[in-house]
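Bumping my old thread because nobody answered last time. Still need a sequence for this structure:
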């Protein structure tokens, strides 16, 4: 920081101690740790009921903010129970020195059909959409990975301050290009990510079942794997390995062995796992979501919920893997360019300083 300082800054990051350091959590924490604010404070929230969580956030913000500083509050994510507390605090504080930084990476589907696997998914989707809309109305700076959400924000806030930047694979895990082009790939299909149903685990199993005797599938990530193992046993699906709560090192070993990364999620921005898969020479098969508009030429996409087309695309990508060497190389360098390195994070910090009219 230079000796010129306009106003003292106090950054506050609201997070949850039990949350995995993935997705939006890792994105925000990387920025919070890197940006050169004068003071930083982390508020850990452990209550999970809507009313108590909101009250805890408001009470903590009352204690942690400083009337003599610009208070920069990082909202953890878009669901209503995460965004409502900071928004209420800002409204009732009536202070121009309270600034909300709002991450909005995607919009959950409101279709009951698209939320069919979990009776709570539709409720969560409504809460996520409501939280995102309130953040657009009351936020000061918006963080996103894709131009689809950027345009959505501008639709309601014409002069909104939006930062569009992907932060993908951690730089220390990027292999040499020669390594991924020459390694032995003995896994046909790989899924890495959260083991919840909205990520498309059930759809992968449905697509894989008819071809399971002649192909291999590995499912790995964080969360409960019991329901996955029950489906595999009940449906007599062959050649599936399931791992939960694996280490980073174990995860990247799986990427290095895989040819096709399958991720039929119904609600995502641009997943970090895409960047990880690209960095390790995986072709990506996925449902086409609006938020993938910027990477549509880097993925093999099918319409959401079309299991037959998902299977066809999986087989196509696997069968033609060696023909897509140019795409594999291009995707590798794309992952390198958009990695979670200091330069990319600093670019976001500099834009935040500029939008807040700070001298740094």
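Sorry it took so long. Here it is:
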């Amino acid at each position: 920081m230079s000796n010129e300082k306009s106003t003292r800054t106090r950054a506050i990051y609201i997070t949850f101690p039990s949350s995995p350091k993935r997705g939006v959590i890792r994105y925000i924490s990387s920025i919070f740790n890197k940006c050169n604010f004068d003071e930083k404070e982390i508020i850990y929230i452990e209550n999970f009921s809507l009313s108590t969580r909101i009250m805890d956030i408001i009470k903590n913000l009352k204690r942690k903010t400083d009337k003599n500083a610009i208070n920069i509050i990082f909202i953890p994510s878009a669901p209503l129970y995460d965004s409502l507390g900071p928004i209420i605090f800002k409204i009732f504080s009536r202070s121009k020195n309270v600034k909300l930084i709002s991450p909005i990476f995607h919009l959950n589907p409101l279709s009951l059909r698209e939320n069919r696997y979990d009776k709570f998914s539709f409720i969560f989707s409504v809460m996520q959409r409501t939280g995102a809309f309130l953040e657009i109305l009351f936020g000061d700076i918006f963080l996103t990975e894709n131009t689809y959400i950027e345009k959505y924000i501008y639709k309601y806030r014409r002069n909104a301050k939006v930062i569009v930047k992907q932060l993908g694979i951690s730089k220390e895990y990027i292999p040499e290009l020669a390594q991924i082009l020459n390694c032995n790939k003995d896994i046909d299909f790989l899924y890495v990510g959260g083991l919840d149903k909205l990520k498309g685990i059930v759809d992968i199993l449905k697509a894989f079942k008819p071809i399971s005797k002649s192909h291999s599938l590995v499912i790995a990530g964080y969360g409960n794997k019991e329901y996955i193992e029950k489906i595999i046993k009940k449906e007599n699906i062959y050649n599936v390995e399931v791992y939960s709560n694996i280490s980073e090192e174990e995860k990247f070993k799986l990427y290095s062995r895989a040819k096709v990364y399958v991720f039929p999620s119904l609600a995502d921005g641009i997943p970090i796992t895409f960047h990880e898969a690209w960095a390790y020479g995986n072709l990506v098969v996925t449902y086409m979501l609006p938020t993938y508009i910027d990477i549509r030429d880097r993925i093999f996409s099918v319409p959401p919920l079309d299991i037959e087309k998902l299977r066809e695309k999986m087989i196509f990508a696997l069968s033609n893997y060696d023909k897509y060497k140019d795409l594999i190389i291009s995707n590798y360098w794309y992952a390198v360019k958009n990695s979670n390195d200091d330069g990319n994070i600093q670019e976001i910090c500099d834009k935040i300083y500029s939008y807040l009219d700070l001298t740094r």
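The longest strand covers residues 187-194. Let me know if any region looks off to you.
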